[in-house]
Specification:
There is one protein chain. This protein is mainly α. It contains twelve helices and no strands. α1 crosses α2.
Length: 252
């Protein structure tokens, strides 16, 4: 791609990919968008689209979030180091703009982008603490839970050098107590919100599997809640599954 396309052009091609019934046109759109995602222009275009995510259709927002995740995951080397902080702050702001209507896939893509950035941005000190402070202050609890869930998982997914992986594993262990206190607070405020209860359990499970939470810390409100859910035959299927995975992780 020789030059940066306009946002209107990108919107039109995304619309064709998702909503045009013509298979030939859809294939052309898919190929064009794939080339865009591989280009250096994808960084700016995705960021600008996400700035207007509340004004766009879900398809365009998902494309921009997916593009941002792919760029951070596969093309982080394209960015000069002086731009890393601004990228971090932009991703956090984009996550803060999400809401209950944004769609889980969009939040997950942005969460993965921020997690992968934290793993690769070695100059970012105490990223877990920073993320909790920023997103909880903005009231973006669902987005924060998603970031905290995928972060330990990405340690073994993203291609990292051995030293960086071990360094980040220690970072997770150091942040474990803070994460537990955050999850306890979430648990106390879940009420009858099944979706939130499920996200808390999944997040806790992710940190247990990553060995980022020590055994003495296991006995807390979250795990007690998991056992209570398992003993309640009226629990929803998704919540029961999350509780089962949580308890199973303790025996790994």
């Amino acid at each position: 791609m020789e030059s940066q396309p306009s946002l209107d052009t990108v919107y039109a091609v995304v619309h064709t990919l998702y909503l045009n019934p013509n298979k030939t046109e859809k294939e052309k759109a898919s190929q064009w968008l794939h080339q865009l995602q591989k280009s250096i222009y994808a960084w700016k275009i995705a960021d600008e689209m996400l700035l207007h995510q509340n004004e766009l259709g879900l398809e365009a927002v998902y494309f921009s979030a997916q593009t941002m995740r792919q760029k951070v995951q596969n093309a982080f080397f394209e960015l000069p180091s002086e731009s890393h902080v601004s990228l971090r702050d932009s991703l956090i702001e984009h996550l803060c703009r999400t809401n209950d209507t944004s769609g889980k896939n969009i939040i997950t893509q942005l969460a993965l982008a921020l997690a992968d950035l934290a793993l690769q941005m070695s100059a970012w000190e105490k990223p877990v603490v920073y993320i909790i402070e920023k997103l909880s202050h903005k009231g973006s609890i669902l987005a924060l839970l998603e970031v905290l869930t995928v972060l330990p998982e990405e340690v073994n997914v993203l291609k990292l050098g051995k030293n960086r992986r071990e360094e980040f594993e220690e970072e997770l262990k150091a942040a474990g107590p803070i994460v537990i206190e955050f999850l306890k607070t979430c648990q106390a405020n879940c009420g009858d919100n099944v979706s939130l209860q499920t996200k808390v359990l999944k997040c806790f499970t992710s940190w247990v599997i990553a060995n980022a939470i020590k055994l003495p810390e296991i006995s807390n409100d979250v795990i007690v809640s998991a056992f209570q859910i398992l003993s309640n035959h009226q629990s929803s299927g998704s919540l029961h599954d999350a509780a089962t995975d949580c308890v199973s992780a303790l025996h790994r």
